[in-house]
Amino acid sequence: MSQTILLVDDEVSIANAIGRGLTRHGFQTLLASGVDEATSLLEQNNIELCITDINMEGKSGFDLMRHIRNHSRYSALPIVVYSGMLSSQVQKDILHFKPIGIFQKPIVFEELLSAVRKGLHV
């Protein structure tokens, strides 16, 4: 059975491209275009890893990571983060949530895939 990854990005073209790549490598990928949709998918599915953009319309990736880390059901969920703007302060703020990977856009898919495999122990 394939492992389920939640991919959260309000840029549909980026989410679709990453999702297709993960699917080709045997992962089931659920796409969410925002934090509210992502939290709903977290409640309804057995998510094993979350990949999220930081800068999105409305709520941010920080809001999602805060929700994940403060919810006992999935507080230990591995998180991979990416953003187009990764200042040193943003990176420091991200580290507070203990992600397993932080990536700057444009993303090198092979590096993202390596972080995913590490996070899922495959």
What attributes does this structure have?
122 residues, alpha/beta, five-stranded parallel beta sheet
Describe the structure.
The chain has helices at 12-24, 35-44, 61-69, 88-95, 109-120; strands spanning 4-8, 28-32, 49-53, 79-83, 101-104. It is an alpha/beta fold and 122 residues long. It has a 5-stranded parallel sheet with strand order 2-1-3-4-5, with helices on both faces. Helix 2 packs parallel to helix 3. The chain is globular and about 35 Å long. It starts with a strand and ends with a helix.
Question: How many helices?
Answer: 5
Query: Taking all residues together, what is the mean pLDDT?
Result: 96
Domains (count): 1
The named CATH superfamily? Response regulator
Question: Termini separation (Å)?
Answer: 13 Å
Structural class: alpha/beta
CATH class: Alpha Beta
Name the poorly predicted regions.
Answer: none
**Strands, count:** 5
Computed over alpha carbons, the radius of gyration is 13 Å
Strand content range: 15-25%
Helices and strands, in order, run as EHEHEHEHEH
Q: Helicity range of the residues?
A: 40-55%
Please outline the major beta sheet.
5 strands, parallel
Apparent shape: globular
Entry summary:
The protein is of the alpha/beta class and 122 residues long. It has helices spanning 12-24, 35-44, 61-69, 88-95, 109-120; strands spanning 4-8, 28-32, 49-53, 79-83, 101-104. It has one domain (4-120): Rossmann fold (3-Layer(aba) Sandwich).
